[in-house]
Automatic annotation (TrEMBL):
Function: Transcription regulator. Forms a sequence-specific DNA-binding protein complex with MAD1, MAD4, MNT, WBSCR14 and MLXIP which recognizes the core sequence 5'-CACGTG-3'. The TCFL4-MAD1, TCFL4-MAD4, TCFL4-WBSCR14 complexes are transcriptional repressors. Plays a role in transcriptional activation of glycolytic target genes. Involved in glucose-responsive gene regulation.
Start-end of Polar residues biased regions: 15-30
Listed name of the protein: Max-like protein X
Region (Disordered) location: 1-65
Amino acid sequence: PALFMENARKGSIVSRANSIGSTSASSVPNTDDEDSDYHQEPYKESYKDRRRRAHTQAEQKRRDAIKKGYEDLQAIVPTCEQQDFSIGSQKLSRAIVLQKTIDYIQFLHKEKKKQEEEVSTLRKDVMALKIMKVNYEQIVKAHQDNPNEGKDQISDEVKFNVFQGIMDSLFQSFNASISVTSFQELSACVFSWIEEHCKPQTLRDIVIGVLHQLKSQLY
């Protein structure tokens, strides 16, 4: 009986120990599973946040770049700085900035074309002056080499005919271009005629034409 009682007591102790251990184990959380869930869920949220933040930053950079582009256009295009009374003191819209920029670019293209034409005209004038310079240098050189050559061979009448031929040719264009309605209009026409018909190349052509006509009197 004593042995039975001892074994029963030991069995009770073991049973209570197992019960306590089971209860304790059931009360302790599953750290492995929870750690896995704990690390996995924040990682997904963080990845989404990073993507959202990157997208927001990229969109903000794009908007900032567009805004700076319009601000640069307003600073570069002179007409954007001028006050537009039709819209008062309101800020220029992007559509107006673009339209003013287009108008200004078209204006620059026209000015460029006009300047190119002026440069071409000036180059022709320079070429005519160079030709006249060469001719005068040859005349001066010939006179210096033979100062007495040809002296008294050309009469005053021939010289007058040369002068008259040049003046007659100029007067024809002068008479056709000048208006005498008023002094103001006369003055304007004179300056216009000088610019159009008294260019070096034009005068040179007139002189050469007169000399060809009077060649029989000169030689």
